[in-house]
């Protein structure tokens, strides 16, 4: 079985090849799409450079009480309640056969499935429709069952949680589910998807079963212009890798208010991706508001069908952040804000990172900025390149002395005119 491992702050294959987690939130995938639709979805995401898809076995939109596309429910009922100890695997094309098909099709396209055993409202009904169906005992049994079903699939990452906070009783349920998974599956990594404006170190810092941490920086302005600070918070709290498993979604109403008339777009999602990558994240997650929900009938709140949104600009561009990260020595990259004389603030704030014989600088608004050189010991010159996050293209524009400071102006300025400066040692 092909396996991922933890290598310092990053993820890698067992042979040491770097793995950049580029995820898509497709929470309702198993629940709402047909086989043919899932095949189309996975092929598109593979073409766009994604490496993982986040999907939920017991989905948010009444996933245990409303049947999937083929009229099947995931669980049998006991005393008129969905029973997690009785997954419905009856003959015919069961709900779980459909999940199997999704996992297999993702694998054929080279994609991991970051599989949430359940959405969080089945554990903590602080909002949503639930119902709450898990306790410590049945969470353990369900964890064992679902892990046994998928333990031999190479392309599984377990993602516990599901957008709900963990109080003490809920933490006990998650711990129990993780224990059930780990009892039968020691091959796959485990992480946790937290509620908005939180990260997994807030709830599971001491959980030894967590292999890497994630945040949900979310869709409002609470954290959306400071996501790299959240990456830094996770880094300070734990030596484990970290990433953002739910930043701003493309086509999501800003601050959850469709009456404002502004929906986060490709420019917005690029900002979070590059800020986070230069903050040392082991990957990044993209999302589209009409895709996670698998919308079929657009509304003012979900403005497109999922198939229309599949090729929106942000989805086509997000793969370039992976391209950039894998283009040079992967494991040596570390945040390096000290390389900038001024970092600015808000949506225009700069980010910088330093690797082995290279450095990246992200200018989200194309504002001219001053770089401190003296970057590479024993090197007299550096090669300067611009990288375009809209096209993935890069080109050399100057050879600079590796000393002092220099003011550089990106090719264009303004909202949507983000650029990455690359500096390379000339040896």
CATH 4th-level superfamily of the largest domain: Glycosidases
Percent range of helical residues: 25-40%
Number of domains: 2
State which percent range the strand residues make up: 15-25%
Overall SS class: alpha/beta
Mean pLDDT: 97
Count of helix runs: 12
Strand order of the largest sheet: 10-9-8-5-4-14
Over all CA atoms, what is the radius of gyration? 22 Å
| Overall 3D shape | globular
Please name the CATH architecture of the largest domain.
Alpha-Beta Barrel
For the termini, the CA-CA separation is 40 Å
CATH fold-level label of the largest domain: TIM Barrel
Sheet with most strands: 6 strands, parallel
Reading off the top of the CATH hierarchy, the class of the largest domain is best stated as: Alpha Beta
């Amino acid at each position: 079985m092909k396996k991922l491992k933890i290598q310092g702050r990053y993820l890698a294959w067992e042979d040491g090849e770097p793995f950049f987690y580029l995820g898509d939130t497709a929470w309702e995938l198993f629940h709402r799409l047909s086989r043919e639709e899932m095949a189309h979805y996975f092929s598109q995401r593979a073409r766009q450079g994604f490496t993982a898809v986040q999907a939920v076995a017991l989905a948010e939109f009444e996933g245990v009480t409303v049947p999937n596309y083929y009229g099947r429910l995931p669980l049998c009922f006991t005393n008129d309640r969905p029973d997690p100890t009785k997954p419905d695997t009856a003959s015919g094309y069961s709900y779980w056969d459909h999940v199997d098909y999704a996992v297999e099709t993702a694998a054929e396209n080279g994609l991991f499935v970051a599989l949430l055993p359940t959405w969080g409202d089945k554990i903590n009904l602080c909002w949503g429709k639930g119902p709450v169906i898990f306790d410590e005992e049945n969470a353990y049994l369900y964890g064992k069952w679902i892990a046994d079903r998928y333990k031999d699939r190479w392309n599984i990452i377990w993602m516990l949680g599901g957008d709900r906070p963990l109080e003490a009783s809920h933490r006990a349920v998650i711990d129990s589910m993780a224990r059930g998974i780990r009892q039968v599956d020691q091959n796959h990594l485990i992480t946790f998807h937290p509620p908005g404006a939180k990260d997994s170190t807030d709830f599971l810092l001491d959980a030894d079963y967590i292999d890497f941490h994630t945040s949900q920086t979310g869709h409002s302005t609470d954290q959306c212009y400071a996501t790299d600070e959240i990456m830094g918070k996770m880094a300070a709290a734990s030596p484990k890798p970290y990433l953002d498993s739910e930043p701003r979604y493309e086509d999501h109403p800003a601050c959850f208010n469709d009456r404002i008339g502004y929906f986060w777009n490709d420019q917005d999602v690029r900002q979070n991706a590059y800020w986070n990558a230069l903050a040392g994240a082991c990957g990044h997650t993209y999302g589209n508001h009409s895709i996670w929900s698998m919308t079929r009938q657009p509304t003012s709140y979900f403005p497109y069908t999922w198939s229309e949104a599949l090729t929106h600009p942000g989805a086509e561009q997000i793969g370039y952040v992976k391209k950039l990260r894998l283009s040079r020595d992967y494991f040596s990259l570390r945040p390096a804000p000290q390389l900038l004389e001024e970092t600015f603030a808000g949506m225009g704030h700069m980010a910088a990172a330093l690797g082995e014989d290279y450095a990246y600088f992200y200018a989200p608004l194309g504002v001219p900025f001053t770089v401190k050189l003296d970057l590479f010991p024993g090197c007299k010159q550096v090669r300067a390149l611009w990288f375009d996050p809209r096209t993935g293209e890069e080109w050399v524009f100057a050879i600079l002395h590796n000393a002092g400071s220099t003011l550089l102006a990106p090719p264009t300025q303004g909202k949507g005119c983000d650029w990455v400066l690359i500096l390379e040692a000339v040896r």
